[in-house]
Each structure stands twice: as structure tokens, then as C-alpha cells.
Amino acid sequence: MSHFSKKYYLFLVVFLGMLSAFGPFVTDMYLPTLPSMADVFDTTPSLVQMGLATSMLGLAVGQIFFGPLSDKFGRKAVLVSAMLLFAASTIAAIYSPTIEFFNVCRFLQGLGGSGGIVLSRSVATDCYSGRELAKTLAIIGAVNGIAPVTAPVIGGLVSEAVGWQGIFWILFGIGAVILLMCLIFRESHPMEKRHKGSVASLLRKFPEIFKLKYFVIYTLMYAFTCGVLFSYISSASFIIQNHFGFSELQFAIVFGVNALGIGLGSAMSLKFRRMNNAALFGASGIVTATLLQVAAYIFAPSFWPYEIPTFLMLVSIGFILTSSTTLAMSEGRNIVGTASAIFGATGFLFGGIVSPLVGIGNILTTTLLLLGICGCCALTFAWFSYRRPAQLTA
Predict the structure, then answer these.
(1) Confidence class of residue 250 from pLDDT cuts 50, 70 and 90?
(2) Pairwise CA distance, residues 10 & 4, whole Å
(3) Per residue in 80-112, pLDDT tens?
(4) Alpha-carbon Rg of the chain, whole angstroms?
(5) Which of 224, 162, 180, 184 is closest to 349 using CA atoms?
(6) Residue 32 has pLDDT above 80, yes or no
(7) What is the rounded distance in angstroms from the CA atom of residue 71 to the CA atom of residue 118?
(8) Helix, strand, coil % (nearest 5) of the chain?
(9) Nearest 5°: CA angle at 169, between 166 and 172?
(10) Residues near 363 by Cβ (< 8 Å), separated by ≥ 6?
(11) pTM
């Protein structure tokens, strides 16, 4: 941080936080309007929900391209290009004549939004290392964890007043603000550090990152934690409203309070001397919280025995979001754009896989099963991380 003024550092933290939250807001903010959109386009709910799937696909695929391209052309040029793509596709989505056209626009929106996510990690790694990187990524990780949970709540609060098109105008406005902030943002990847070969040779670097054993371990730990997070996000409204009988407003309050747990965990992770220790603590917390949820489901099937372990689980997720990102980005520092791309795309891929699975059978039983599987896998990789010699993780 020493080479930046305090004012620019604060700007950079806000800027990177907005970039990391951009993708989740693209996917989740309009969720409360899905039923009304089926009427607007005179189509089936499944076709309307396809817009969620196409946007997540865009977020995953886009990171694979924007990350490596930023290693060659710099972070700023690639970010501006991504935001322009997002702005154009958002306008097109607002005036979509058919649901099929809308779903294509959603894919392009995801592509544009992915640039912000992948570059938020790359820029942070360009500028900082060690504890300073951990502190910056803790803030980014907190925002990135809270955003998927709070976006539907915000969308629900404004949807009745502005409708689905109004929500998309809000998204367009956020994109426009980020574009304006790019004028202040200083390029973090100087010419002398950029990839000198062709774009094709840059893409051939992907196998190199998989040769980094611990990068793969940290990425899989993060991915299975995303599986836990998206299992919760996908099932929470059904469990809290249908199973426990809460109203939409009550659900929004519970959902919002739980989101604070992720930020709390991200902040607390900085108390650990090694990020590997924080990861193991967080993964152990996820598994413990899931076991408590199972016990509550069997012996005390009421709200508070469900809610308290759920909050503890989200706090534990915050520990891993920060620690795994810090560890993975430090490991892949030599090709950080590519590393950030693979890291982020894997998380969205796992989130996209588990989200539809929670609806199979009894949603509470299936969710607990997914939480248990993903939590145990995250704990396994956290254990491998913890066992790494301390001198290699300093």
C-alpha cells in the first residue's frame, strides 16, 4: 500500500469491490421479477429461467478469455471493453422483442460482467502481496460473498416500483459508473510485465497453471465452498418461506442478516497468521454447521435450530472466500490474469451445477446432502493446504 496515497487506495478498494459484486448482481438482482417476465413475454417459466443459466455461462466463459487477454493488453483496456459490452447488451435486453433474444443478451451481459470479476482479483494481485493482498482480498471476498445473497433482496424491494426493465436500467447505471471510474483507475499491469507472444500462445499457458499443485488445491477448495454457498442461495427462499412459513419480507430480513455473516468471516480470517489455517478453520466450521443442521432437521425441526447453524456456516464461508483467493492468486502471480480466470470460472461452474440440484426431491433433505458433500470436499482440500510447509506459504 505504501506506493499509493491513502485516497487512491480507498478509491481502489471501492472500485475493486464494485467489480467483484458486478457479476452476482447481473445474475441475481432480477430474480424476483421472473414470474412477471413470463407474462410479459408470454412464455414458459423454464424459458424465462434460462436467462439465469445463460448469464452464469457468460460469467464463467468470459473469465477464461478476459483474464489471459488482460495479461497481454493490460487490465484497463480489457476492463473498458468488458464494460462497453455489458452496457450495449443491457440496453438490448431492455428492448428485447422475444424471450430468445433476451436470453442471448443475458449471455452477453454475463460475458461483460465477467471482466469485472476476473480483473478485481488480477488488479489486487498486481498491486499488493502478502498481508496487504490478504487485507484487500478480504474486502473483495466479503463483497463477492455478500453480493449473491443481497442482490435478490434489493431486486425484490425495487421490482414492484420499477419492474424488470427498471432493474436492468439500474444495472446499466452501475456499469456506467464503473466506466467513469475507469478514468481514475491507473493501469496496474505495466508494459514490461505483459505477455509478449500472440494471443494463441497466451491461451496455451492454461496447462501451465494446472501444473501448480497448490493452485489447483486452493481453487478446488474455493469451488466446493461456492457449491455450499449456491446450495444455500438456491434453497433458502423455499425452506424459509414454504417450510417455516415466513413471509417474503421476513425472508428478505433473514437473508440479509445471514449475508452479514460472510463479511464477518472474511474480516475475521485476517486474524490468522497463515491463510492456510484460516481455510482449515472455515472448512471445519462448514462441516460442523451442516451436522448441526442435520441434527436440527431430525430432532428440532423449527426455525431457530435451522437458522443459527446456517449463520455459522456463512461466517465459515467468509473465512474460505478470503483465504483461498489470497492463496491461489499468490500461487499464480506469474500469470495472474490466467490464474484469476480459471479460479473464478471454476467457482461459477460449481455454483451452476449445484443450483438446480437442490430442487430434486425433498428440498431440505437434498440441500443438507449437498452441503455435506461440498463441505467435506472443501475440508479435504483445506487439510491438504494446511499440511503445506509454512515456509512455502509465507
Answers:
(1) confident
(2) 10
(3) 999 999 999 999 999 999 999 999 999 999 999
(4) 20
(5) 224
(6) no
(7) 12
(8) 85, 0, 15
(9) 160
(10) 235, 238, 239, 243
(11) 0.81
Q: Crossing angle, helix 45-73 and helix 6-28, to 10 degrees? A: 150
Q: How far is CA 74 from CA 70, 162, 176, 356, in A?
A: 5, 38, 20, 37
Whether residue 394 has pLDDT greater than 70: no
Q: How far is CA 166 from CA 154, 183, 254, in A?
A: 12, 27, 25
Chain position carrying cell 476492463: 79
Position 390 scores a pLDDT of 60
Predicted local confidence at residue 145, as pLDDT: 66
* Average pLDDT of the segment spanning 347-375: 88
Show the DSSP H helices in 29-98 as ranges: 34-40, 45-73, 75-94
CA–CA separation, 141 vs 344, rounded Å? Answer: 12
Mark out the alpha helices in 191-274 (DSSP H runs).
199-203, 206-210, 213-237, 248-268
Instruction: Show the cell assigned to 40.
Output: 410479459
Distance CA 293, CA 313 (A): 10
392 CB burial (10 A radius; 0-12, 13-18, 19+): exposed
d(CA 202, CA 139) in angstroms, rounded, equals 30
The whole-number pLDDT of residue 1 equals 44
Q: φ, ψ for residue 138 (rounded to 5)?
A: -65, -40
More confident residue, 302 or 24: 302
C-alpha 37/C-alpha 40 separation (Å) is 5
pLDDT, average across residues 188-216: 82
pLDDT confidence tier of residue 242, bands split at 50, 70 and 90: confident
Contact assessment for residue 232 and residue 95, using Cβ atoms and an 8 Å cutoff: no
Residue type, 140: I
Can you tell me the distance from the alpha carbon of 148 to that of 143, in angstroms, rounded to the nearest whole number?
9
Mean pLDDT of all residues belonging to the chain? 87
> C-alpha distances in angstroms, 249 versus 166, 258, 270?
21, 14, 34
Q: Find the length of the chain.
A: 394
**For 74, phi and psi rounded to 5 degrees?**
95, 160
Cell numbers describing residue 321: 472466500
